[in-house]
Design goal:
Largest sheet: 6 strands, mixed
Structural class: alpha+beta
CATH topology of the largest domain: Ribosomal Protein S5, domain 2
Shape: globular
Distance between the termini: 17 Å
Bound molecules: alpha-D-galactopyranose
CATH class of the largest domain: Alpha Beta
Order of helices and strands: HEEEEEHEHHHEEEHHHHHEEHEE
CATH architecture of the largest domain: 2-Layer Sandwich
Number of strands: 13
């Protein structure tokens, strides 16, 4: 087997300085709450993106990957958002965003970069954040930026917002940076304070199944931006800076003042924030077997109030629960992508085949189903 370092040497003619990596993520609960300054509870998964990087003597960045033939070249003297497109925008966007955040790149060395990944693209598992965070930790070390993981997560988010054009929050990059084995990351998106919460999955003999609908989504266009706009409209009409300020007690008043669609969007965010807090409290007090109702309620809220699920996701979740999952819900931005099911390990296979059968019987697209393990966030591998 060729290692990534060997592949780098074959591509660039010398050995890399090091290899850095960062994972994709699953959000356990807390969807579309991040850009409303609310709460999220994701974990980093055991699927990663690796960046083998070598330091150059000039100011050139050369970028290659194991999944595309073309080499992209850019200069650190001329990093502009205009010239960025395709997957390389995620990498060059991080360099741009670091400079935009105040990092002094005036003496930074050019880099040769080779990217590899086993995070599925378009599955709602944040392959883009994995890429941003892998190069983020590499840049931080090689350019001596001295940034902590949260600062690097923010830079990844800015890259996503500005270089890629998706109005996303901090969820994905925070999970990819701060993830820990067997833990979820509780993040308050208002204060940007984060702490790990123990999951104890193995101890409880539980697994998490990812059920990728194989319906592809795009957050730079379409429904994601519309939901973002509805939340901003709701906040404005309610006279608050963000929906974080609205609590369950304020929902009756919100209903009286908002049109039905905006109200339901607001209700999702408000109730979802509470479900995140309840999930953290339940995990601490009673463990993961007790969070099923919260996962299921989140799925219903995304389906009926926020309207971001697709039939493949709804049927997969309902079928998983009917066949013994503790809970199941869509994860990520929606309009396709993946759902997750929290399952007793001994039932994982039978639940997966029941979901496949149900989707096939309904004439819907065949899902890809696999387990994920909560894993360590961004790091240097060698
Ligand atoms: C996408 C975005 C995140 C978050 C989720 C929905 O993954 O990148 O910032 O908004 O959707 O919770």
């Amino acid at each position: 087997m060729t290692t990534l370092s060997q592949a780098f040497e074959a591509a660039y003619g010398y050995a890399p300085t090091g290899v850095w990596s960062a994972p994709g993520r699953v959000n356990l609960i807390g969807e579309h709450t991040d850009y409303n300054n609310g709460y999220v509870l994701p974990f980093a998964i055991d699927r990663r993106t690796w960046a083998a990087v070598g330091v150059r003597e000039d100011r050139t960045i050369r970028l290659r990957s194991t999944f595309a033939d073309a080499e992209v070249t850019a200069s650190l003297d001329d990093l502009s958002l205009d010239g960025m497109s395709g997957w390389s925008a995620y990498v060059l966007g991080v360099a741009w965003a670091a400079a935009d955040a105040g990092a002094d790149l005036s003496a930074a060395a050019g880099l040769d970069i080779l990217i590899d990944s086993d995070v599925p693209v378009g599955a709602g598992l944040s392959s883009s954040a994995a890429l941003e965070c892998a190069v983020g930790v590499a840049f931080n070390e090689l350019w001596g930026l001295g940034l902590d993981k949260l600062a690097l997560a923010r830079i990844g988010r800015v890259a996503e917002n500005k270089a890629v054009g998706a109005p996303t929050g901090l969820l994905d990059q925070a999970a990819s940076m701060l993830g820990e084995a067997d833990h979820v990351v509780f993040l308050d998106c208002d204060t940007e304070q984060a702490h790990p919460v123990a999951l104890h999955l193995a101890q409880e003999n539980l697994q998490i199944l990812v059920m990728n609908s194989n319906v592809e989504h795009e957050h730079a266009t379409g429904g994601y931006g519309e939901r973002f706009a509805s939340c901003a409209k709701g906040a404005q009409e309610l006279g608050v800076a963000t929906l974080r300020e609205v609590t369950a007690d304020g929902l009756a008043d919100a209903q009286a003042r908002l049109d039905d669609v905006t109200y339901r969007r607001v209700r999702h965010v408000v109730t979802e924030n509470q479900r995140v807090l309840d999930t953290v409290a339940t995990l601490d007090a009673d463990g993961p077997r007790a969070i099923g109702d919260l996962l299921n309620a989140s799925q219903v809220s995304m389906r009926d109030d926020f309207e971001i699920t697709v039939p493949e996701i709804d049927l997969a979740c309902d079928t998983a629960v009917a066949h013994g999952a503790i809970g199941a819900r869509m994860t990520g931005g929606g309009f396709g992508g993946s759902s997750i099911a929290l399952v007793p390990a001994e039932r994982a296979e039978s639940i997966a085949s029941a979901v496949r059968d149900a989707l096939s019987a309904a004439g819907l697209r065949e899902p890809s189903i696999f387990t994920v393990v909560p894993s360590q966030g961004a790091r240097r591998d060698s």
